[in-house]
């Protein structure tokens, strides 16, 4: 039942409600007609953003692929996955990111090879994935330096130094390899803990051994020459790994890489890298 105010007109409340519904209807109608292209614009913005993320992903992937080609040598193919598996053995950086890069390779194939057309990607990488692959690409393009994993400072000795001084360093720092130089600062040999032990074993039967009088040159095994090579202070970890692998394929064991400022074998040593240092440089599982 409608309320009547006595003059045959609807009550003021009813009038307000009717006008409100009319205004709401008109407002809704005007709103729906205000921008008929808004849905198309939003779709277009998403498509542009989609292309940008896919493009960034592909660019970063190609940067890593280029770095892998320069890093991994002696492969039958320069395909990304082939380089990944070939480089796994000898390069710590590949081992660090192998799992992620393998997944990125699958995503890249979906993006590049399974397009519906040139402007439509069937797969879209999340922004977090794009940021991650760009971070890895930067690390591949600016590799870790050799000095970053080298033993520093280097304890080196002149051939007339005393054994007792070497033993003190071994006891305190657990070092096992020491470059030896002559009086003219020229490199002559690498003294190892193995040689020290062999010398001690040889003289074990002696009634008295005066370590205070034993000099480094007496410990050096005549005719024995350990394989040692020299690099400059800017050498990359890639290069060091390549050197160790090169000696290994020739059936030789590289005992140490000595770093000097310019790579000169007679320069002052500022770092030493052993096979153990390469193992220590691997990321934790």
TrEMBL record:
UniProt biased composition (Low complexity) = 1-18
Which Pfam families did the record assign? CBS
Question: Compositional bias (Basic and acidic residues) spans?
Answer: 43-55
Keywords attached to this entry: CBS domain
User: Residue limits of the CBS domain?
Assistant: 149-207, 220-285
The signal peptide stretch is: none
Spell out the Polar residues composition-biased ranges. 28-37
Annotated region Disordered: the residues are 1-56
- Which domain of life, per UniProt? Bacteria
Keyword Amino-acid biosynthesis in record:
no
Q: What name does this protein carry?
A: CBS domain-containing protein
Q: Which organism is it from?
A: Mesobacillus boroniphilus
């Amino acid at each position: 039942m409608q309320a009547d105010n006595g003059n045959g007109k609807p009550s003021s409340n009813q009038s307000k409600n009717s006008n409100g519904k009319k205004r709401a209807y008109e407002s809704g109608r005007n709103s729906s007609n205000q921008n008929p292209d808004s849905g198309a614009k939003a779709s277009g913005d998403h498509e542009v953003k989609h292309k940008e993320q896919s493009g960034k992903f592909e660019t970063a992937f190609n940067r890593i692929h280029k770095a892998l080609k320069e890093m991994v040598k002696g492969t039958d193919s320069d395909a990304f996955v082939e380089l990944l598996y070939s480089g796994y053995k000898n390069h710590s950086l590949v081992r660090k990111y192998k799992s992620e890069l393998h997944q990125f390779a699958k995503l890249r194939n979906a993006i590049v090879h399974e397009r519906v057309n040139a402007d439509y990607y069937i797969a879209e990488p999340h922004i977090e994935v794009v940021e991650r692959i760009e971070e890895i690409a930067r690390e591949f393009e600016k590799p870790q330096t050799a000095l970053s994993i080298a033993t520093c400072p280097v304890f080196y000795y002149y051939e007339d130094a005393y054994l007792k001084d070497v033993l003190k360093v071994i006891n305190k720092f657990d070092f096992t390899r020491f470059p030896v130089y002559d009086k003219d600062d020229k490199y002559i040999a690498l003294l190892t803990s193995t040689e020290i032990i062999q010398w001690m074993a040889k003289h074990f039967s002696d009634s008295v051994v005066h370590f205070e009088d034993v000099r480094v040159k007496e410990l050096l095994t005549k005719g024995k020459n350990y394989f040692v090579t020299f690099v400059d202070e800017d050498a990359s970890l890639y290069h060091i790994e390549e050197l160790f692998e090169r000696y290994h394929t020739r059936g030789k064991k590289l005992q140490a890489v000595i770093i000097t400022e310019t790579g000169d074998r007679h320069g002052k040593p500022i770092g030493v890298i052993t096979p153990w240092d390469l193992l220590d440089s691997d990321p934790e599982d």
